[in-house]
Task: inverse folding
């Protein structure tokens, strides 16, 4: 099986139904975690699983005294495995990553298992303080400048390591302001003194530009959830937005895998973990 194609086809299928996979996993409840270890799955696997909750492999279910109900369909999750490979030109042996997969079941598909890590649903009350704390801690720790102007654009400038945002009062909803702020914070993680991800010669519409934008979109969606906020996503659910990403993903089966992996690293840096 071509794992890259399988992943991309699944993401495309959801988008063709009007669903944004990198936002869906973080709406309302929590994240997708291993029932055995409590560890969260990667952002890519959260997109593939879609439904929050605890998951087990067939063997793990049996080891915990449960059993998978007859007829239940397994879900694919992926991981990187490093293998040695000889360079065709130099003959040098190098370790290269290969994508592998295995199957899991939600514990609701099993009998004899109960949730270990269930968390209460987040309060509907605004949690601006959490979002502000994430932004303030990151900017202070990394020395990123953040300013607000009464303008109509939001951007990160690598040359000055500075983020510029419109004033919060200009946003129709508080959560939309933080979504925009987190988007630009994610861009800032790509600075050469951090994750060294940004290609400053990338132009609008290029593959490098599109990949960086997707990294920032995934990062913002995850951080909005971490802060306990929900957005209406009026822009992100628009037909034009979806069609744009559909075109990009259909052109490169490795695109979403690469972008989600880099978004994982960006989020870890922002959260200081």
Result:
């Amino acid at each position: 099986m071509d794992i890259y194609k399988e992943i991309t086809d699944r993401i495309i299928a959801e988008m063709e139904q009007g669903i944004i996979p990198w936002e869906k996993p973080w709406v309302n409840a929590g994240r997708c975690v291993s029932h055995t270890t409590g560890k969260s799955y990667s952002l890519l696997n959260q997109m593939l699983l879609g439904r929050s909750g605890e998951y087990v492999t067939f063997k793990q279910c049996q080891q915990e005294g449960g059993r998978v109900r007859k007829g239940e369909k397994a879900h694919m999750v992926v991981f990187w495995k490093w293998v040695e490979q000889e360079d065709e030109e130099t003959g040098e042996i190098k370790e290269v990553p290969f994508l592998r997969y295995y199957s899991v079941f939600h514990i609701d598909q099993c009998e004899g298992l109960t949730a270990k890590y269930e968390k209460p649903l987040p309060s509907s009350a605004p949690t601006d303080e959490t979002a502000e704390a994430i932004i303030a801690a990151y900017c202070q720790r990394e020395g990123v400048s953040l300013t607000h102007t009464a303008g109509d654009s939001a951007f990160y400038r690598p040359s000055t390591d500075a983020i510029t945002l419109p004033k919060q009062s200009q946003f129709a909803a508080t959560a939309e302001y933080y979504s925009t702020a987190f988007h630009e914070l994610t861009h800032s993680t790509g600075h050469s003194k951090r994750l060294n991800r940004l290609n400053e010669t990338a132009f609008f519409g290029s593959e490098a530009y599109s990949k960086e934008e997707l990294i920032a979109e995934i990062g913002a969606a995850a951080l909005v959830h971490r802060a306990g906020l929900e957005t209406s996503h009026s822009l992100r659910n628009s037909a034009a937005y979806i069609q744009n990403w559909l075109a990009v993903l259909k052109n490169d089966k490795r695109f979403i895998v690469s972008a989600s992996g880099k978004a994982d690293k960006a989020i870890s840096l922002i959260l200081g973990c």
About this structure: The chain is about 40% helix and 20% strand. The first helix runs from residue 3 to 15.
